[in-house]
Amino acid sequence: MEKRELLYTGKAKSVYTTDNPDYLVLVFRDDTSAFDGKKVEQLARKGRVNNTFNAFIMDKLSTAGIETHFERLITPNEVLVKKLTMIPVECVVRNYAAGSLCRRLGVTEGLELSPPTFELFLKNDALGDPMINESHAVSFGWATEAQLSRMKELSFQVNEVLKALFADGNMLLVDFKLEFGLFHDRIILGDEFSPDGCRLWDKETRKKLDKDRFRQGLGDVVEAYEEVGQRLGIQF
Hints:
Blueprint: E1 3-9, E2 13-18, E3 23-28, E4 31-34, E5 39-42, H1 46-63, E6 70-75, E7 78-82, E8 85-86, E9 89-96, H2 100-105, E10 112-122, E11 131-132, H3 134-139, H4 145-168, E12 171-178, E13 180-183, E14 186-189, E15 198-202, H5 212-215, H6 221-232
Antiparallel strand pairs: 1-2, 2-3, 3-7, 4-5, 6-7, 8-13, 9-10, 9-12, 10-11, 12-15, 13-14
């Protein structure tokens, strides 16, 4: 399939059209950003590592019966995906307290949440991706009640699959965000799943193995991503 025009440039990926209107090419770049783009750096190998990591996770989810937009890797930094009409609402599942949840509610980092929590955030960089509820999403036309119900169902299915997967690598899946879109009227998982969009801790030491290493200036960001992959058996 032929990669054609640049359609969109995001914080860490570029999106290209193809000669098939149903498919796009995503290019994973080495760019890394945090705090709504206020902190930006380039980290060598990051694009390739995240692309490979995402392909592995999407394959595991597909095997578990969760439909995704992933089709196949093209190059170490490029992937072919289905073209989705994205729903501008992020779904966040939290198994342990961390990040904004601790700041908002004053709870201790690392508190296990039983059952896991589910939150919605509006995809809007200018507003800082504010937290919203289902009523907001429906009233403003960002998603329908049926779509939100399906997104929540899929989010918890993803959680069950990936909690077990990371546990096998002696890691805790602390929290993660997902984005969904429509493909021929079916809601399926889009965007990516990588340490950029989730929190992962070593089960014993609670060492952070995710993008918090960049946010908090802990260093060895890509090395931590590679460690996660190696624990899962990913070949970079």
